[in-house]
Amino acid sequence: MDLGTYLVTGAALSPDRTTVEVVKAALAGGIGVVQLREKAASARDRYEVGQTVRELTAAADVPLIVNDRIDLAAALDADGVHLGDDDLPVAVARDQLGPDAIIGRSVSTVAGAEAAAAAGADYLGVGAVYATSSKDTDPEDSKVGLDRVRAIREGVDLPFVGIGGVTVENAGDVVAAGADGVAVISAITRADDPAAATRRLNEAVADATGA
Description:
By secondary structure, the chain is of the alpha/beta class. It has a single domain, classed as Alpha-Beta Barrel (TIM Barrel). It is built from 9 helices and 8 strands. It has an 8-stranded parallel β-barrel, surrounded by 6 helices. Strand 7, helix 7 and strand 8 form a beta-alpha-beta unit. Helix 1 packs across helix 9. The longest helix has 18 residues, at about 45-60.
């Protein structure tokens, strides 16, 4: 799985375009992973959007991850699920989705990263690295900064993306601090040209890794 640039969808943060349109553009720009989030949508609406997104990502050979909902991931035949503190444990997701499923876990501390690794997560989402308005975060989990990214890189071997307030301008800093890539919402969904924004993020990550 290419974690370089990872799109988290959100129709509320996609002015004048649908989630499907954003995903099409991001795929054209070379996105590595798509996570279906759509927090404001009903389960039925998420499923209906997810069906189309699943077709698009499968055709592009890009993993589709579903935020929070193990049942929805199974219903869509998604590649995996991404879990937070309030979701079911990693072990339950593994039992329900099988050994080949990709299971991600959101963390903001070294201890959380170590626990997720021990539980069998495949990758981590670390943040919020910077201030963000794209999702609600506890004050202790907000603006954890690059020093926390470095500490988590030293603490675990799992691949991870930095998320939260990531832009084209700071994506390279997040990767240079130890992240394998960056996860974004509004940096792509709010962009005038989501495909071009994806390409610029890919370039920033590649420059930071020397790829």
